[in-house]
Design goal:
With about 425 residues, this protein is α+β, with helices and mostly antiparallel strands. It has two domains: about 5-235 and about 425-435, Ribosomal Protein S5, domain 2; about 240-420, 2-Layer Sandwich (Alpha-Beta Plaits). Helices cover about 45% and strands about 20% of the residues. The protein is built from 14 helices and twelve strands. It has helices at about 5-10, 15-25, 25-45, 130-140, 165-180, 190-200, 210-215, 260-275, 285-290, 295-300, 305-330, 330-350, 360-375, 400-415; strands at about 55-70, 80-95, 100-105, 110-115, 150-155, 220-225, 230-235, 245-250, 380-385, 390-400, 420, 430. β6 and β7 form a beta hairpin. The longest helix is centred in the C-terminal third of the chain and has 26 residues, at about 305-330.
């Protein structure tokens, strides 16, 4: 699609209809997205002035939120996640120089990778270059084609918000190669695996697969990690927009820098319980078996490990019931289960604050305020979001209470503390195909 045609299509009715499905039906939000996409093409042309009016492509990949199954995936459990209305978009052209050049908003210099060297580079660990190289390498290893491209990326998936900005970018980069050189033949699950591989092997971060799958597939998606090498993925057909609710992420602040030990202790303690019972992970034990053996387990693994295993067993099964509620269209039952998951994380998993600094309890305070706010209404739900210990909570809030709730939270946590989202039904997309 030429530049002039692309801009015409982005301003057309088909694009507006698509944007209403991706970002929400408010006409102001739709117009904001039309402007955002067109401005991205303007910026691309500024950064690549000699693109010679080649075929231009536009891609979008959502961030994700975790809704059910808090700290269950690392013990072969189940999770419920969803794509959200915040996304990263890219304006792209192919190139014949065997080089991938990516400009990202906020970074003055481009990320550049030559495709004649696809081996991991130690000095690149922790960088976007590592992800680009790893994604290209894995796609080639799997027998697909790769090639150079020039891209400008802009993202409103907030870093550090628990919405998986890195997984979003990984899936986006993979999908660019997928459409430019492979006619879109690589499916979403494989794109997710490719992103995970790049993050594990090239970026050197031992992430799981939940984030990439949710970004690639979109909508409500449940993942069963019983066979971690081949997780079962199921997308759930549920119309969130019709419920008159908003999905909120509340940023409570706090510092993640000192939390490595806290995060590592969660799966380690859960597995210590399973190991003491002759198993490998908590998925292999039952609640009855755990309770029967608590008297001697207390001396063997400690009380907190037992409580965390109890959380796993409850929350793992709770995901099954959440999925059933969504499939039946029973949103009230679903919200009740979200609250139960939150209470379990708070009381049993104990990941709402770090014992290293008990004076700072932003997550706990936000949950307490939210529960008090919703107490008289009988509506809504909240729970810790993601890994916990610092950072964000997740809230399902009726739209009629939205302004009042935001005013309350912003008094405590600041004017930018609340991000209002919706569930996005679509995963990673080549926008050209839909407008």
């Amino acid at each position: 699609m030429t530049l002039d045609l692309l801009r015409e299509r982005l301003s057309g009715e088909k694009a507006r209809d698509l944007f209403s499905k991706l970002y929400g039906q408010d006409p102001q939000i739709v117009e904001k997205q039309v402007h955002r996409y067109i401005q991205a093409t303007v910026r691309f042309c500024e950064l690549f002035p000699r693109y010679d009016n080649q075929e231009l492509y536009v891609f979008s990949t959502p961030g994700r939120t975790e809704i059910g199954g808090n700290h269950t995936d690392h013990n072969a459990g189940r999770v419920l996640a969803a794509g959200v209305s915040l996304d990263a978009i890219a304006v792209v052209t192919g190139s014949s120089d065997n080089v991938i050049t990516v400009y990202s908003e906020g970074y003055p210099e481009p990320f550049t990778v030559r495709l004649d060297n696809l081996s991991p580079v130690k000095e690149e660990e922790g960088t976007t270059n590592a992800l680009i190289r790893g994604i290209a390498s894995r796609i080639k290893e799997l027998g697909y084609k790769i090639g150079g491209f020039n891209a400008y990326i802009t993202s409103d998936v907030l870093g550090g918000s628990g919405l998986s900005s890195s997984a979003c970018i990984e899936v986006l980069l993979g999908n660019i190669i997928n459409h430019l050189y492979n006619e879109g033949k690589i499916d979403g699950i494989l794109l997710a695996r490719i992103g995970q591989y790049a993050e594990n092997v090239y970026f050197n971060k031992p992430c799981g697969l939940m984030d990439q799958i949710a970004c690639a597939i979109g909508g409500f998606v449940t993942i069963d990690f019983k066979d971690s090498g081949n997780p079962l993925v199921k997308k759930i057909d549920f119309d969130f927009l019709s419920q008159n609710y908003s999905l909120l992420v509340v940023n409570t602040g706090g510092n993640h820098a000192d939390l490595t030990d806290d995060y590592a202790a969660v799966p380690a303690e859960m597995k210590s319980v399973a190991n003491a019972l002759g198993k490998t992970v908590c998925r292999e034990i039952s609640m009855d078996e755990l309770i029967e053996n608590i008297p001697w387990l207390r001396d063997k693994v400690g009380d907190r490990a037992i409580l965390r295993a109890m959380h796993f067993l409850g929350d793992d099964q709770r995901v099954v019931h959440q999925v059933e509620a969504l499939e039946k269209g029973d949103f009230n039952e679903f919200l009740k289960l979200v609250n139960q998951s939150g209470n379990s994380s708070w009381k049993l998993l104990q990941n709402c604050f770090t014992t290293k600094n008990p004076q700072e309890q932003g997550i706990t305070l936000a949950l307490g305020l939210t529960e008090e706010f919703l107490k008289e209404t009988g509506k809504g739900a909240c729970r810790v979001h993601g890994g916990g210990f610092a950072g964000t909570i997740l809230v399902f809030m009726p739209n009629e209470l939205l302004k009042e709730y935001i005013a309350l939270i912003e008094k405590v946590f600041g004017s930018d503390a609340v991000t209002v989202l919706s569930i996005r039904s679509y995963g990673t997309l080549c926008i050209n195909q839909l407008i």
